[in-house]
Specification:
Two copies of one chain form a homodimer.
Chain A: H1 8-18, H2 21-28, H3 35-53, H4 57-63, E1 66-68, E2 73-75, H5 80-89, H6 108-142, H7 145-157, E3 161-165, E4 181-184, E5 190-200, E6 210-216, E7 229-234, E8 236-238, E9 244-247, E10 250-255, E11 266-279, H8 285-321, H9 345-377, H10 381-416, H11 428-435, H12 445-459, H13 463-478, H14 486-512, H15 515-546, H16 551-568, H17 571-580, H18 584-587
Helix pairs in contact in A: 1-9, 1-15, 3-6, 6-7, 6-8, 6-9, 8-9, 8-10, 8-11, 9-10, 9-15, 9-16, 10-11, 10-12, 10-13, 10-15, 12-15, 13-14, 14-15, 15-16, 15-17
């Protein structure tokens, strides 16, 4: 079975030493978020995740959720409901929600390490509260006073959980095609009818009610994505005071049999004249949906990070224990029958790749979360606009890179175990199966790439990229005379310049042929991710050196950064070449000729 | 459920048009292997695989093998045993075995397309006959007359199946550590005792007997890998005439619960004073084992290819059917509610990547198989030596690249399905889980890389590489004035020159520091694989143009080659940079400091 220990040391380094969270929180008016409080939250989070959630990860996979067709109920795996009760008692659901709604009012940047721990400890379980968070965001922005009082407060307390009901059998990415209908009842409520699929936590036995946020069409709605509205549809009907009553007309029709996340209920939800309430304006549902979606995308990125870290921890342990062959430079442990496999360069390649992607990726993800705090709380409008542009730019990068790296890290970790990695009992194959969903849901990697290239670069003329390039240049300028950092600063500066040129070249090509946007998108996203990580690794070395941490910690950051620049940053070469080759090699072949 | 159709057209292209198999078979004295006969074999193979094995792929995954602890028996999934009966009746087990031993005496190059089809149709099922093939090779080389008469002939007829019993709980890669013991009984037989794990097809209900080839130590054996001998240990005892009797002292102790290939029995085998016969010389078991192993490595490479092809076929079908969003350059099917996703550049990227790796990889694999024929049958000693060196050089490349590409292709294919790919019923997630074993068994990718770099390059001073570079240069020279091929020939020539320089540079570095071999190995292997594929794609264009095939076929080859050179060959840039960065960034960090 795979084990998990929350990486508190590196989490603290990321928050305190690199992102300078003390100063940021003070500036944004998070008076509660002192170092003492944050430390206590992190430590209690570590305890909860290591001792309550992590031990349930295996049973969640083996037993899974059980659907009862007789009453449409879903039983979660043994221990899941009790863990949720403890989660609610601990006040975790409202950790980053406003105090006036019953939350704890802590910054998002404090919420993400807890999120990372939950995903590492038990991804399947984590999906139950995760969807509440998206619903909370949407209702926080667009709910009216009554909706906030009845639904939002209970989502924040954790008494009820939420869902996002978007996908239908014939439409996932293309929500403009959706068919679910909403008809006004004349009393301010609506009747919702239709079928939604892939509804995470759509039905379960962990909370008193389930608040579905459903996209549907009103009778007079325009066609396509401009005719979509959002509705609250609770599992149990509620009265004006929020008391629950009889079942509403919504029922789970079945749950999916999936490659992984067996402990997470992925439901087909049938709505049959279910009573609902409109959220925000009619036909503006897609805007409200994107509020949920952006939060969810960052959260799914964190899932990739959490799984990658658990993969790293276990493969590192195994590589130190497993004895096999001698080092090519002579026995390192002659008293043992063979050397531990961590002496072999290729095993180190797999471990260092994970370490570089996990620790660098942590900064990528936490930084984005800190931008959520800036956007929500900074006074200066100019700063807010810059942070907003940067957050929009980084969101698809965080989602796609952290999840694809999560898949990659679980791949390397399993490979470190050799044939044993393929066997269920070691837990590595579960991590690999669980990780595989993260590049698919909340928008596939290809959709993230299009969001980045089409919306954030082309439509917004690269506003977010400009902000990020400014941050990189400021860092390079600050350290240009620092010999100890020269090996990182010089190549980072060169890559940043190249990034800008590449972006301009793609934009120029896209004016002549719109397919150039789609053709460049995937490689541009990963090119961007690797340059961003180069920045975070260079900053990590600078921050470690400037800190009072032990020399071994500083050495580890420096050597991992060296590895990153030597062996992972060169992935940009391939992405650049692919981008520069343009759309022609992708579009020339006729669709019918693929198997000519 | 995923479907499968044998790609007969591209198989014929590979054999007849690119590899010029008619001329090769005639030269090697395979009088039976005329085009008519080969065509008939391919067509019957396609029928058998499409109609018998492919429909059992899903039930194999869902039901899996069942172990009965009461008697140590293993029940294979419904239909598996009957399919094996049909396989034996069809004469498939002995397809490439010598006629004098009851085989059909066809070339290996005809056997591999059938192997590819089996692996695509039903990888789990294919593992039962696969291991017989390795045992056949070992006994063909090292068995005595009685062993051939009793065991080998029955393996070739398919009446019995074989296994390779190498791995023990504490040693897989490092066989020098193995502990299984063999003691002479004084009557020419031996008593074998010990535990072997990960024994594919170690127990099942498909054949009359199971012939285990077991590595064990004699009492006076030298320590390490020079003290290993190989023994035949049958499941049922046999008399001098090969009649089976009572159970031998070997029994399945359990079967593994695995990520995939559920229909394949992966057994713990307990040997308790089991009766066995020495194969070949005492303490020379590792040499005999490598005969099995090299065959098995090529075969596992083909598994990657087969799965990749099935992945490609299904994702291509889905991409033509699934309607989602409009093309960025305007609706392509305005009469439909949305365009099929094959219009989108990023979907095409995933499809073309699969197509380029599958069709190029097919040539890589088939070429290696044809070298097995050359080594076994060519008259000229110089030619034989060259083919042998080239085969040894290509074997780790075929094994590692085709399996890693198999994993990659099943990844892209699942991704093309979006969230639906993660659901069991579509069959894509099974392909991904099944593919994951191929980079682990018969030597992990890292071990293939060490074999290539350490043995084939360093120890053999690159003899095989020189032969391959000569073949590439001859091709480039032949076509250097051909304008239609210039876009492939020029970059191929440059890459070949770079390949040679890179190899020399690694060799030079390795003389100073042996860790440079291990540090370069993985990236060198993939660098080599991508240059080799560039050669096969350039040759494919030339061969297609020179053939009488339809224009659409020629166009597809040309455009896929363009895609390959533009978007996949640049992966060499990253591998080259990693190689050139040397061992330092891998070795600097102390093992204890990875989580400092």
């Amino acid at each position: 079975m795979s084990s998990y220990k929350a990486p508190l040391d590196d989490i603290r380094f990321a928050l305190y030493d690199v992102l300078d969270s003390d100063a940021l929180f003070a500036k944004l008016g998070f008076g509660e978020a002192t170092r003492d409080i944050v430390d206590a939250v992190l430590e209690e989070g570590a305890r909860f995740n290591e001792t309550v959630l992590a031990p349930l990860n295996k049973v969640g996979d083996e037993v899974g959720c059980k659907f009862d067709p007789a009453d449409g109920s879903v039983a979660t795996p043994p221990g899941f409901a009790d863990a949720y009760r403890q989660y609610v008692e601990g006040g975790w659901p409202g950790l980053v929600s406003p105090a006036e709604l019953g939350g704890q009012g802590l910054p998002h940047a404090v919420g993400v390490p807890i999120k990372e721990m939950i995903d590492a400890a038990n991804l399947s379980w984590g999906n139950f509260p995760l969807l509440s968070h998206g619903a909370t965001e949407a209702l926080g922005h667009y709910g009216d006073a009554w909706q906030k009082d009845v639904f939002l407060k209970r989502l924040i307390s954790g008494e009820w959980t939420g869902t996002m009901c978007l996908t239908e059998p014939h439409c996932g990415t293309d929500l403009g095609l959706l068919k679910t209908k909403a008809v006004a009842n004349g009393d301010g409520t609506y009747s919702i009818s239709g079928t939604k699929i892939f509804i995470t936590a759509g039905e379960h036995d962990m909370a008193g009610n389930i608040v579905h946020l459903v996209l549907a069409r009103l009778p007079d709605a325009p066609a396509g994505s401009k005719g979509i509205s959002m509705f609250i549809v609770p599992k149990l009907r509620v009265d004006a005071d929020g008391n629950t009553g009889e079942r509403n007309g919504v029922r789970c029709g079945s749950i999916e049999h999936k490659m992984g996340i067996h402990g997470s209920a992925t439901c087909v939800m049938n709505f049959d004249a279910a009573q609902g309430w409109l959220v925000g304006e009619a036909n503006k549902g897609l805007v409200a949906m994107f509020v949920m979606m952006n939060t969810a995308r960052l959260a799914v990125g964190l899932q990739g990070l959490g799984l990658a870290d658990r993969a790293l921890q276990n493969s590192l342990r195994y590589a130190r224990e497993r004895l096999q062959m001698r080092s090519l430079t002579g026995a390192k442990f002659p008293e043992k029958p063979a050397d531990p496999i961590i002496v072999h360069p290729d095993v180190r390649r797999m471990l260092l790749t994970q370490k570089a992607l996990v620790e660098g990726g942590r900064l990528l993800g936490y930084h984005a979360a800190s931008l959520v705090d800036v956007v929500g709380h900074v006074q200066d409008e100019g700063e807010k606009a810059q942070a907003d542009a940067l957050l929009g730019f980084l969101t698809p990068i965080v989602k796609a890179c952290l999840t694809e790296w999560g898949v990659e890290c679980t791949y390397h970790a399993l490979q470190c175990f050799g044939g044993h990695g393929y066997i269920h009992e070691h837990g590595m194959e579960q991590l690999a199966r669980d990780a595989r969903i993260t590049t698919l849901y909340e928008g596939t990697t290809g959709i993230q790439a299009l969001d980045l290239m089409g919306r954030k670069i082309m439509q917004q003329q690269g506003a977010g990229l400009r902000v990020f390039l400014g941050i990189i240049e400021a860092f390079c300028k600050e350290h240009e005379a620092d010999d100890a950092l020269a090996e990182y600063v010089a190549p980072l500066r060169a890559k940043a310049a190249e990034w800008q040129e590449l972006t301009i070249a793609i934009g120029r090509g896209a004016m002549a042929n719109a397919d150039e946007v789609g053709a460049a998108a995937y490689d541009y996203l990963f090119y961007s991710g690797y340059v961003a990580l180069a920045y975070w690794w260079a900053r990590s070395v600078a921050a470690a050196d400037a800190s009072s941490r032990p020399q071994a910690f500083k050495d580890a950051k420096r050597e991992t950064a060296r590895f990153y620049f030597a062996r992972l940053l060169p992935r940009t070469l391939q992405h650049k070449a692919a981008i520069e080759s343009g759309a022609v090699s992708l579009m020339a072949l006729d669709a019918a000729a693929f198997d000519a």
